[in-house]
């Protein structure tokens, strides 16, 4: 029996690999236009990094973390998200705020795998620390939209937004929800019953059919906003209007993590079934090293973006060597070495006949074939065959690099530094 990948994980091959890299590179390049600094945190973190931040009622904490004890008995967790780890980094490295941090990489959640949902998945993640101004929320939403446009999927995803208000709003709203939901305790799902004591706002997120009937008449948050919360939210909505970003206010959008306040948003698509959030995030003003630290961020799921974008990688076309005779075979090794070190993609095969070499040159979609036998070695020349037109020409050995550079201009491997 062949061994398969772990449930909810995937291999990445060729075209998908390029697509994946394209998304990461594009996100990084766009992040630089907004002043983000790239950072990388370890995949392994002490469990408390997440326990202290994500909230005891979040699905991640209650059922989804990959947690184990290492050989020294320390509790370790494979990171289920970036935000808590980036907060740890900010504190640990004593970074000066304001600061904008970009990261990307794999995350792990023990969820039921389905289209757009894996147990090992990847995010592009953006966090801004030290800016309390609502313009930072607007900038981030606009950055999400910028990425959607870059990926050519802006028409597939719509912005949903809500505000959870400030601390006072959240306390008042929680109280109102508890007194409403307590009347239906016996009818609520087990998850919602638990949330009633831990974080009643999260009940609004329930997908349970019976819960949804009860939620329908639950108090709405707009009646509980403080003056400051309302003004903050208004500024954000005005900013979005100025930028021409259309949105829908979804008062049930509360997000699955407990750290949010004020702005929460998601760009949601209908094209991925039930896993529709492509980008998601919000504000999570927090205490870091005993100091109030405003923070706002979002993350996009790379696998979800991959499902949506049209992408085909342009495969580079090789120069194919066709040596004829023993001496030419030996010279091939030296020649390919020289070509590759001159950044020219070149290939040849060992031990095959002239006929099969020609066939192979077609199979690998070579741009040109370089043909040389004893005669060419003696004259210090090569015969170059253009594989598209079939025309052949003789070139002096000394001029070969320049000539090949010219011929393969539009079909080369590009190197960036
Ligand atoms: P999240 O909503 O848990 O938020 O995840 C953000 C995005 O990651 C989702 O919208 C989705 O595209 C992708 N995603 C999440 N889980 C999976 C999965 N199992 N398989 C595939 N893709 C998935 C956060 O992670 C927050 N830390 C975002 C944030 C940053 N908030 C503030 N700053």
Automatic annotation (TrEMBL):
Gene3D superfamilies: Anticodon-binding domain (3.40.50.800), Bira Bifunctional Protein, Domain 2 (3.30.930.10). L-histidine binds at residues 81-83, 109, 123, 127, 255, 259-260. GO terms for molecular function: ATP binding; histidine-tRNA ligase activity. InterPro entries: aa-tRNA-synth_II, aa-tRNA-synth_II/BPL/LPL, Anticodon-bd, Anticodon-bd_dom_sf, His-tRNA-ligase, HisRS-like_core, HisRS/HisZ. Residues 1-318 form the Aminoacyl-transfer RNA synthetases class-II family profile domain. Its main location: cytoplasm. GO terms for biological process: histidyl-tRNA aminoacylation. It holds the Pfam family tRNA-synt_His. It catalyses: tRNA(His) + L-histidine + ATP = L-histidyl-tRNA(His) + AMP + diphosphate + H(+). Its EC number is 6.1.1.21. The keyword Transport does not apply. It is an enzyme of class 6 (ligase). One of its GO terms (cellular component) is cytoplasm. The keyword DNA-binding does not apply. It is found in: Cytoplasm. Keywords: Aminoacyl-tRNA synthetase, ATP-binding, Cytoplasm, Ligase, Nucleotide-binding, Protein biosynthesis. Homodimer. PANTHER family: HISTIDINE--TRNA LIGASE, MITOCHONDRIAL-RELATED, HISTIDYL-TRNA SYNTHETASE. Belongs to the class-II aminoacyl-tRNA synthetase family. HAMAP family: His_tRNA_synth (MF_00127). This is Histidine--tRNA ligase. It comes from Wolbachia pipientis. The gene is hisS.
């Amino acid at each position: 029996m062949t061994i398969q990948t772990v449930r909810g994980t995937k291999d990445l091959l060729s075209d998908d690999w390029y697509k994946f890299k394209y998304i990461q590179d594009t996100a990084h390049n766009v992040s630089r236009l907004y002043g983000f600094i790239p950072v990388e945190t370890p995949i392994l973190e002490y469990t408390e990094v997440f326990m202290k931040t994500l909230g005891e009622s979040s699905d991640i904490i209650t059922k989804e973390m990959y947690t184990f004890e290492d050989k020294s008995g320390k509790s370790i967790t494979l990171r289920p998200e970036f935000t808590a780890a980036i907060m740890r980094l900010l504190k640990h490295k004593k970074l000066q705020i304001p600061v904008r941090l970009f990261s990307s990489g794999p995350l792990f959640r023990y969820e039921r795998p389905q289209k757009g949902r894996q147990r090992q998945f990847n995010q592009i993640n953006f966090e801004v620390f030290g800016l309390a101004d609502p313009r930072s929320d607007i900038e981030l939403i606009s950055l999400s939209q910028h990425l959607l446009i870059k990926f050519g999927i802006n028409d597939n995803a719509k912005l949903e937004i809500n505000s959870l208000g400030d601390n006072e709003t959240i306390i008042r709203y929680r109280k109102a929800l508890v007194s409403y939901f307590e009347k239906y305790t016996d009818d609520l799902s087990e998850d919602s019953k638990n949330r009633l004591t831990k974080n009643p706002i999260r009940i609004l997120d329930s997908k349970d059919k019976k819960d949804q009937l009860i939620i329908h008449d639950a108090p709405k948050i707009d009646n509980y906003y403080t003056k400051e919360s309302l003004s903050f939210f208004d500024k954000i909505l005005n900013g979005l209007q100025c930028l021409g970003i259309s949105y829908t206010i979804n008062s049930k959008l509360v997000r699955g993590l407990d750290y949010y306040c004020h702005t929460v948003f998601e760009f949601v698509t209908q094209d991925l079934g039930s896993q529709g959030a492509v980008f998601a995030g919000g504000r999570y003003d927090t205490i870091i090293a005993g100091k109030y630290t405003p923070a706002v961020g979002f993350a996009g799921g790379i696998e979800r973006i991959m499902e949506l974008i049209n992408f085909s990688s342009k495969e580079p076309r090789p120069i194919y060597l066709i040596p004829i005779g023993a001496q030419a075979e030996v010279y091939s090794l030296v020649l390919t070495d020289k070509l590759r070190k001159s950044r020219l993609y070149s290939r040849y095969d060992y031990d095959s006949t002239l006929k099969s070499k020609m066939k192979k040159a077609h199979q690998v979609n070579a741009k040109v074939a370089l043909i040389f036998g004893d005669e060419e070695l003696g004259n210090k020349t090569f015969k170059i065959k253009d594989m598209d037109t079939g025309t052949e020409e003789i070139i002096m050995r000394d001029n070969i690099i320049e000539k090949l550079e010219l011929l393969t201009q539009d079909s080369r491997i590009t190197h960036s530094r």
